[in-house]
């Protein structure tokens, strides 16, 4: 669709998945990599150049074969990119941004200047500097290499003043390596957002932002990503997206996709950690979960094609990286075990990168599992994670591990339980995970507020609320969540449930409650199943089968009764 | 994940997409094609052999490089496959099935023997045969070549006795080409189903069936596929899946994916048309729409890996083929126009095949658009189809063209309209397509039955039913569909809607109706939006924004009122 050939500095797995996207779009690619045509991307690209992406001559050789240059790794020769760009070769993202990002200290200075919230940081010229900074920042602090760091390489924790010398030496400070230090960010979790920056038809900048993911690192390497993040409010997610977008806005006319890693602190504030000017491990989930994946989006940005849709097409997605276990045949088999296990998971996307060898710790592939909710994606990926990291793999993650509730059943009092248990029974019959809680609008109004406002982020899709008398719970909850709320009027002793029914059903315009018959919680469960099936043909078929069998079994029982008469 | 190398006879687009799937799974492939490494599949496969898949030596050369053989085209040298199979080289699907399918007449005899419903057919040895058969079959009849036919090549309609000679000559009957003839099947539409046949861990045969698609041919070449098919009942779809599955069951231990094309007749019966023992154009939609796509599924079958899930992950999907317009630069640009247009469609998957040249009529790529319903997928793909075939492209298709109703609003009488229009207004505000009909449980019980039982197949996700007095409509409709039904009690003159409310809300156990306040159809619309958002975070955000703005605007209005006092 585009006659230009795209040259890519780097031929690893990110480049490989970029080439697949280029194929689909009818765009030719040429990759530059030390492994040339044997690199993961070189194996599938139309052309390749064998050489280092840090070698000026090799980059120039790539440019000769291509109409536009981009990259899948930022540790490239930015000087020669700048020179080529000056000479009229389009390079995206712009070389000045690549250069700026390469030096993490300069990156931070730039972002700070543009008002992006960051952990405090300072340049380190000598070991002595660290002592004085440590007195101000407190311990632990994070010492970082300014250049060439990735996957935790180039980071060293300084636990206290006594640890300064070791950390300084570990990162080569004594040998003259350039370093800087960051104040410790006491984060609750790490978040990441992919931001796409392209142009519209009139060449004006246009941006799109993917959903927020919760990333878990293992030995400083990305291990899993979950989206939407559980336990992060809508507002916090919007804040993370805004910070990521603001940061990328500071990059002038640079185009491409950017991976933005952030910290969510206990107080709900968000600090930017670092930026990658390219497709990123935390964006792999977009292949199964979003309208257009990060690789196609990157090409669209770079080529000036219209941007694709970033929204989730699924209720949740979880990705796990597959790292090499070692080169022996046993270790290769062990490395591939989670892929084999993933074949049994209905919603798993398996991605092997085709690398030669299987070195320990090397990124060999990844698996993404999608689900109706983030919690159900987590539940489905559980056996795959177990194959990676033992049976308690999920427990070792700092993410919720309970079976994924899709329906929340709440009631004003435990006296409602004999009625409400019928809803739970129906959900059990249909295999739909749910949670049951006592939530009273009148006795525990604050908990009610908390429950209703966090239900969506916890992955709940439908709420069933039972209440009797002056029954305010269903309506109040409906006023606090965009989720559908089903109301069950519980039969009252004074007015036989007439009070409950009218309190629940007669909601004012603007806030609906789906009301079922007095005391009929089973129907509330069935309505929840139908609601979950509204967009899910498979679920709908289960309801159709239930309806057929239900009528059939009733008829049978009736015949039996007739026989008894 | 599997150390075996898979050899594929044929290196076209089907082979190319099979190679992508092999990459993801970590399986090596070698393709045999006259274009060798320049063929669409050869460009991306690890290895390739240049040669014809009909040439015994070339097939043997392929076998030497591979551990197991499969194919992406059935017009291959089946004798040499049989010979290799006898010599211990695994070949899947089994060569006897490939041979049997190659001769369409033998294929039909085989299927008839196994009780698969087919159009009547008969062998044709001479032109004279056609006269006597014509007297029995009636005209028109369909004369077909027994061998080597695809994409309509090898078919000739015999309109009447006078047309026999021309048709017989057209297909080379005089030159000794082997032919057979089929009785005309007066079909309402053409359906297709992909069937996967693999083995479980104990090497027992296991089968999975993909959803039914409605295929539209243009000049005897597949033009579009729509799933689920609109206007085909659940029972008819199940019948088509059963016939397809029964047919493939007749193939003994053969493994792989099979494309089964069928006719749906006006009376609702289904006849099998023909079978392809390989991935098929009518299965391309599985890449965006299903758990595991047909290419990965084929490899899983062939390699004896666990089968993947076939169910739809979306409400609907439509695929359109992109055929070459010609070799000139203008024609190449014209060919690619629909791809460029598809960049603007949020849910479009674009697939260019990387073929050399752009010969007129050649399959160059395809585009699949997914949606919340089949009708919305059709609506979204409209501009892409227009770029292929002019502004009236959709109208020329024999599929519904109306904007996609996702919500059905029904009411017992037009006197309910002043109440029910508020539901429509809300849906308009949220941009959700809907249909409005008068359906009375009492006055038009048969239409009510028809409406309720076909709503799901028409792509409706939620029904809003309003009724007053002895209000039976919501509950009766709920008893006839697995979809969620929202009931609006319309205010009655006699009992102020108390009768309507109790008739709607007090449903018996088993059949729920989501009841809203008396006369509050706006809330029914909002509840429908919430239901559609239960599995759709984007939709849910719209509701959250609405709730925020609603409260805000109310508060503003109240302040203004206060000011006026």
UniProtKB/TrEMBL annotation, chains A, B:
Q: Which SUPFAM superfamilies match?
A: Glutathione synthetase ATP-binding domain-like, N5-CAIR mutase (phosphoribosylaminoimidazole carboxylase, PurE), PreATP-grasp domain, Rudiment single hybrid motif
Q: Which reaction does it catalyse?
A: 5-amino-1-(5-phospho-D-ribosyl)imidazole-4-carboxylate + H(+) = 5-amino-1-(5-phospho-beta-D-ribosyl)imidazole + CO2
Its BP terms in the Gene Ontology are: 'de novo' IMP biosynthetic process
For this protein, the record's Pfam families field holds: AIRC, ATP-grasp, PurK_C, RS_preATP-grasp-like
Quote the EC number: 4.1.1.21
Q: Which domain of life is it from?
A: Eukaryota
- HAMAP family attached here? PurE_classI, PurK
Identify the NCBIfam families for this entry. PRK06019.1-5, purE, purK
PANTHER family on file: PHOSPHORIBOSYLAMINOIMIDAZOLE CARBOXYLASE, PURINE BIOSYNTHESIS PROTEIN 6/7, PUR6/7
- Name it: phosphoribosylaminoimidazole carboxylase
- Organism listed in the record: Symbiodinium necroappetens
- Taxonomic lineage of this organism? Eukaryota, Sar, Alveolata, Dinophyceae, Suessiales
């Amino acid at each position: 669709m585009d006659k230009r050939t795209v040259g890519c500095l780097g031929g690893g797995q990110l480049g490989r998945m970029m080439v697949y996207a280029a194929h689909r779009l009818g765009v030719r690619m040429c990759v530059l990599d030390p492994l040339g045509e044997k690199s993961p991307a070189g194996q599938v690209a139309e052309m390749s150049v064998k050489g280092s992406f840090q070698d000026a001559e090799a980059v120039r050789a790539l440019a000769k074969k291509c109409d536009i240059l981009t990259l899948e790794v930022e540790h490239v020769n930015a000087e020669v990119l700048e020179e080529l760009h000056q000479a009229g070769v389009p390079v995206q993202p712009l070389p000045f941004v690549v250069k700026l990002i390469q030096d993490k200290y300069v990156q931070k200075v730039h972002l700070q200047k543009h008002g992006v919230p960051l952990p405090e940081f300072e340049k380190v010229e000598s070991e002595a500097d660290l002592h004085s900074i440590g007195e101000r920042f407190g311990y632990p602090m994070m010492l970082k290499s300014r250049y060439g760091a990735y996957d935790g390489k180039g980071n060293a924790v300084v636990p206290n003043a006594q640890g300064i010398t070791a950390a300084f030496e570990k990162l080569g400070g004594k040998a003259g390596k350039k370093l800087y230090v960051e104040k410790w960010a006491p984060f609750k979790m790490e978040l990441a957002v992919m931001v796409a920056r392209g142009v519209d038809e009139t060449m004006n900048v246009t941006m799109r932002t993917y959903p927020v993911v919760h990333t878990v690192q293992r030995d400083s390497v990305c291990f899993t990503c979950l989206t939407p993040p559980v336990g992060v409010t809508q507002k916090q997610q919007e804040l993370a997206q805004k910070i990521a977008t603001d940061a990328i806005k500071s990059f002038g006319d640079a185009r491409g996709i950017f991976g933005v890693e952030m910290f969510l602190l206990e107080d709900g504030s968000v600090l930017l950690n670092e930026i990658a000017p390219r497709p990123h491990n935390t964006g792999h989930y977009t292949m199964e979960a979003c309208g257009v994946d990060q690789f196609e989006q990157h090409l669209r940005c770079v080529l000036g094609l219209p941007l694709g849709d970033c929204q989730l097409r699924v209720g949740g997605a979880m990705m796990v990286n597959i790292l090499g276990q070692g080169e022996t045949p046993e270790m290769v088999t062990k490395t591939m075990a989670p892929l084999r296990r993933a074949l049994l998971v209905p919603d798993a996307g398996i991605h092997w990168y085709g690398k030669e060898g299987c070195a320990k710790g090397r990124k060999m592939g990844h698996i993404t599992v999608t689900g109706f909710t983030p919690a159900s994606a987590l539940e489905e990926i559980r056996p795959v994670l177990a194959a990676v990291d033992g049976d308690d793999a999920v427990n070792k993650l700092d993410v919720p591990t309970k079976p994924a509730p899709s329906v929340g059943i709440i009631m004003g009092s435990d006296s409602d339980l004999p009625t409400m248990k019928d809803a739970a029974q129906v959900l059990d019959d249909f295999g739909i995970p749910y949670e049951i809680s006592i939530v009273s609008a009148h006795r525990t109004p604050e908990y009610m507020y908390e429950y209703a406002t966090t239900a969506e982020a916890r992955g709940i899709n439908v709420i069933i609320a039972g209440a009797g008398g002056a029954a305010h719970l269903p309506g109040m909850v409906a006023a606090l969540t965009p989720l559908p709320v089903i109301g069950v009027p519980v039969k009252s002793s004074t007015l036989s449930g007439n009070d409950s029914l009218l309190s629940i059903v007669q909601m004012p315009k603007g806030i609906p409650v789906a009301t079922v018959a007095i005391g009929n919680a089973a129907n509330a469960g069935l309505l929840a199943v139908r609601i979950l099936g509204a967009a899910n043909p498979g679920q709908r078929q289960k309801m159709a089968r239930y309806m057929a069998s239900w009528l059939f079994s009733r008829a049978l029982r009736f015949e039996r009764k007739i026989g008894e008469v």
